[in-house]
Amino acid sequence: MTIRDDHALAADLANEAGERLLRIRERTGYDDPAALRAEGDRASHVYLMESLGRLRPSDSVLSEEATREERLDPRRLSADRVWIVDPLDGTREFSERLDDQAGRADWAVHVALWERGRLAAGAVALPAQGRTLTTAEPPKPPAFEKGRFRIAVSRTRPPEFVRKLAYLLGADLVPIGSAGAKISAVLTGEVEAYVHAGGQYEWDSAAPVAVAQAAGVHASRIDGSELTYNQADPSLPDILVSLPELATSLLAGIRDLHR
Ligand SMILES: Nc1ncnc2c1ncn2[C@@H]1O[C@H](COP(=O)(O)O)[C@@H](OP(=O)(O)O)[C@H]1O
Ligand SMILES: [Mg+2]
N or C: which end of the chain has fewer CB within 10 A? Predict the structure, then answer.
């Protein structure tokens, strides 16, 4: 693996971590969801940290599952290259079954590379959906069709104003778990937008935003400003991802409603 293969490395690591998570879920079952979540988070984090430490020893890593001290390590702020990873996004959904007893599929592994002020590579593995979205081969964004559209929201923490926003713009809300699964749903045409506010962190969006940007899909804060990564405080509490044709009306609607 050479330094030029960052896109492929992100995809390989996300895929392998995802395979491991599927095996853990198969072996452990759903009887103790808290234990399943803890094992999944830990195993995926350890795999990603060991692999990046071995394959990219000079780079920094910011992981959701790192300790507070590791996350506050100031070396990350002066580094040129920082991998921003969420070993298991949608942890809650990973441990839940659907009515037909199949495990939920709206969870993801996020691997992104931030390099000198911008997202340079990223991959989102959706192991239970059998697909991985990657900057190595950015997906072609779905064609925009005028008319009613769909906005993905958190299953458990949908922002207050989004119901009104949907009413105002003629959209339906689609609850999906995991930020990565929701942004992927925009890229695969299951929904046309994703709106979130009220709390989130850099690792929840870095990898899917890297892929969205490579695909030419709109991604910003909900006030239209840029999403910035590798900040001292990794909080990045709101986000809008949408087909480019919808961004102006979504931002205007949000401006009117979200005060
Ligand atoms: N209000 C909030 N504060 C902090 N994190 C939040 C949040 N709302 C959503 N998130 C995080 O964003 C990810 C997607 O959430 P959701 O499925 O509700 O949209 C989850 O990541 P994890 O599963 O990695 O913890 C969740 O913890
Ligand atoms: Mg997350």
Answer: C
Which of ligand 1's atoms lies nearest the C-alpha of 157? 18
Does the CB atom of residue 199 touch ligand 1 within 6 A?
yes
Give me the interface pTM, i.e. the ipTM. Answer: 0.99
User: Would you say 123 and 5 are in contact if contact means Cβ atoms under 8 Å apart?
Assistant: no
Of ligand 1's atoms, which has the minimum distance to the CA of residue 86?
A: 24
Structurally, at CATH architecture level, domain 3-134 sits in 2-Layer Sandwich (3.30)
81-114 per-position pLDDT tens digit? 999 999 999 999 999 999 888 999 999 999 999 9
Quick one: fold of 149-257? D-Maltodextrin-Binding Protein; domain 2 (3.40.190)
The DSSP line for 109-148 is: EEEEEEETTEEEEEEEEEGGGTEEEETTSPPPPPPP-SS-
Q: Give the Å distance between the CA of 221 and the centre of ligand 2.
A: 17
Structure tokens at 210: 């890297």
The protein residues having their C-beta less than 5 angstroms from ligand 2 (an ion) are: 86, 89, 204
